[in-house]
Amino acid sequence: MVSNPIFIDLSKISDSDRLFDLLCYPIYDPKTFNSRLIELETLGIKSIELSGPTILNNNKILGKGTRGLVLKANLGNSSIAVKIRRIDSPRINLISEANIQLFANKFGIGPQIINYSDNCIAMELIEGQLLIDFFYKMDSVNIVLIKKTLESLLSQCYLLDLHGIDHGELSDLKKHVIINNRVNIIDFDSASLTRKPSNVTSCVQYLFIGGPPSGLLQNIFSIDREKLIITLKNYKRTPNYLNFIRIINLLKL
Fold first, then answer.
1. Sign of the CA dihedral running 21, 27, 32, 34
2. What's the DSSP call for residue 139?
């Protein structure tokens, strides 16, 4: 039986105890709590919806990372996602992450940012299947759909490379790509504009060489592993469109 989600009205003090662990994770501090409550209200968020696949102190949330929590929230009549910076995060704020994600948004990549503050990022809510579930929970192997999905994912990775954005965590895609009616790269927590981008190479290595789905995808596409490694090295050395297309052609996408 699916339980109904719990809604927390930010204007009601009686509801705020459920938010103590969420706005001030992992250590509650009254001053910080009140400050972050004001930040959320300034962003236009009126309520938090406790729902999602992750359980934290008996609260359902969308996700938990080493630097932040992601909660479901309500902005007007729309459901959105809001990232809250953890108290113990080494980052002093979320401004850099928000700016990089906004830059990626210009190319149609990542959840669209709605608004942000020092400790909160309000963004488009992305719901769907994690990439690994997409591969393994198909009723039957749909090669056309898999090819379309992988081509979209790698094209987004190339755009990130092209514009100097290194996502930073695409060597392990399992929690960073969500599939619905489109392919969504999420979580720009580790993204950088100063590192050399390695999005395409990291993604291909995970998918076809060393990651959990590599055996399945190698069998489906009969990939020449050694030739793929050489082609990736050429792209890494010279990350231009021609070398990207050589990867796409080798993968038969």
1. positive
2. S
Helix H or strand E segment including 83: strand 78-85
Give ranges for CATH 1.10.510 in the chain.
Answer: 129-250
| Cβ-based neighbour number of residue 85 at 10 Å | 24
Q: What angle do CA 182, 161, 117 make, to 5 degrees?
A: 70
pTM tops 0.85: yes
Residues of the chain within CATH 3.30.200 domain(s) are 6-124
Contact 52, 63 (CB under 8 A): yes
Q: Which helix (H) or strand (E) element contains residue 37?
A: helix 30-42
Mean per-residue pLDDT for 164-180? 94
- What phi, psi does 62 have (nearest 5°)? -75, -35
Contact (CB, 8 A) for 246 and 240: no
CATH topology of domain 6-124: Phosphorylase Kinase; domain 1 (3.30.200)
How high does pLDDT run on average in the chain? Answer: 94
| Segment 52-70, tens digit of pLDDT | 999 998 899 999 999 999 9
Which fold would CATH assign to domain 129-250? Transferase(Phosphotransferase); domain 1 (1.10.510)
User: Which of 3-12, 60-69, 115-124, 150-159 bottoms out in mean pLDDT, i.e. has the lowest?
Assistant: 3-12
Give the pLDDT mean for 156-165. 99
Element (DSSP H or E) covering residue 85: strand 78-85
